[in-house]
Amino acid sequence: MKTLYVExxxxxYPIHIGPGLLRRTDLLQPAIHGRQVMIVTNETxxxxxxxxxxxxxxxxxxRSVILPDGEQYKNLDTLNRIFDALxxxxxxxKCTLVALxxxxxxxxxxxxxxSYQRGVDFIQIPxxxxxxxxxxxxxxxxxxxxxxxxxxxxxxxxxxxLADTDTLSTLDDRQLAxxxxxxxxxxxxxxxxxxxxxxxxxDLLTARDTDALIFAVARSCLNKAEVVAADERESGQxxxxxxxxxxxxxxxxxxxxxAWLHGEAIATGMLLAAQLSARQGxxxxxxxxxxxxxxxxxxxxxxxxxxxSTQQFLDLMAVDKKVMDSGxxxxxxxxxxxxxxxxxxxxxxxxxxxxxxxxx
Amino acid sequence: MKTLYVExxxxxYPIHIGPGLLRRTDLLQPAIHGRQVMIVTNETxxxxxxxxxxxxxxxxxxRSVILPDGEQYKNLDTLNRIFDALxxxxxxxKCTLVALxxxxxxxxxxxxxxSYQRGVDFIQIPxxxxxxxxxxxxxxxxxxxxxxxxxxxxxxxxxxxLADTDTLSTLDDRQLAxxxxxxxxxxxxxxxxxxxxxxxxxDLLTARDTDALIFAVARSCLNKAEVVAADERESGQxxxxxxxxxxxxxxxxxxxxxAWLHGEAIATGMLLAAQLSARQGxxxxxxxxxxxxxxxxxxxxxxxxxxxSTQQFLDLMAVDKKVMDSGxxxxxxxxxxxxxxxxxxxxxxxxxxxxxxxxx
Lengths: 360, 360
What we know:
homodimer, about 350 residues, alpha/beta, Rossmann fold, Dehydroquinate synthase-like, alpha domain, 2 domains, seven-stranded mixed beta sheet, two-stranded antiparallel sheet
């Protein structure tokens, strides 16, 4: 097991990474300050891991709420089901919510914890690779609105994160690849050594080797934690974490939510960012090839869907949340391991990049 | 006009109190950092004050959302109507929400501002006396759940509060009295000089004299601001602000929400707290009489409704939110101007106090 700490002053917390953590009462107990614990999970995860988690919480008053599985349920109505459960069991302000599941469960349970009685304690047990490397660090919680993703939410830090690598054994290959996309992202934006390591160890990761997964999850969380600690409220450096996201959101919206996994869309988006960076002369063509090759080895798509036109893609990029704030700014690459946020790119090069990147 | 400042470090903000403030662009402008402003108000207030408020916001992109009026609409569904309006008009993270109305509007708009895109700017324009002295200081926002009041919410500080005393001219007498109950509360818990002033000036207040209202609102906000600045997250001193509330919530719940106004229930609750304090020997009987007399002059009820039994009252006190946390603790008085939070009272004296306080 590896443990790292997200340093946020009073609200600092540990991330434990390794196999067999669900039952580790010794890790959970220090993060719980009252007696009442509500496990928030979904219909897919509950049969697999709810019982083990309950065992790890022996001695507390443990209740659970089992939500439907899927991004389409990440809304205020589902959030209210968590409040129903908390109030039906008369949970008080000292209670703790445990998010057991992927990113959707983490976002829902985290926002419920942020808002229940104006804020209660919260533990993350992410069960997907994506959630282990992404939503377990940073404190972003929230739900979707029919007019936009993640439009309603709060910053709320967990007391503790348990990333149990055993739970990755039940992930399907697409979900695993989606997590690898985020892992590759950390190498691209600020950690060239890690990118090199990923090139050497991608086969171990896709084979779900425990030690390789622990290293990759820990190194990713460390990178994200460093960024977040420097910039908790997302203004400067934190924006680099959005590498590939403006491109990726266009694919997710254009194809309909759920057709592409978020990580898949981000993978293609990161390669588009690299290709645009190369057209601007900021990145070597050989580096673009390395990025595309690594994404492909992880099992990720790297081309724009054939039924999305370049103009549709550009239109969708223009309505992205981050664009609404400040015009079209993109995260681009000056090297593998060095990203910048910029609007100093040539729109014609952007169009040419998109034209060239469509599926055959 | 008087201006006082709530000191909360980075999140400090001014409260301006006086007549004719709605149109004061010079006061609003420094509190707005983007271009987009959403006025959140209700069907009662909009015909009276929406146009003036829009005039005060000339030069900004101003939209408004008009909600139904009443505590029964303080829920997640109504909250979502604010998000609908924000997203339909593509409001970005630099937008500002303006709460124009009483406490319900302030709580709804404040929670919407806390959660929209994980937090945007917020201005309070409270139009009831109660909201001017209570919800404009402290940063509490939120909505009700069918199983409990104010169970879902956030702490979110406004950038600025405009308490326009002209808006009090359209309040009905019961609403005015409900605000006076909270004002008297500040005298009781920590400001004996203010209590004396209220005894000398109650007739001016019920006659809605502008200067008297400005003084009373400012002195109340100052008292609350001092408490909140010392204890932003409600643990110690802030609990004193709940004088009369455990008793009052029992009346509100027992009579059905809306039958008694919150301030009316708190008034009776404060007198019950004073009577229990006297039975414990902590308060002089003459002081209890002064409190009862002042509440009556303000037009407030001071007896328990005849159709609530003492046992029903005790049962309802036991399910109050604050009781769920830590057993039955009450705010009691050691003198006018000196309150304490305590569980060191004799339950038989509590019962006797309730028995004696029923309507004839």
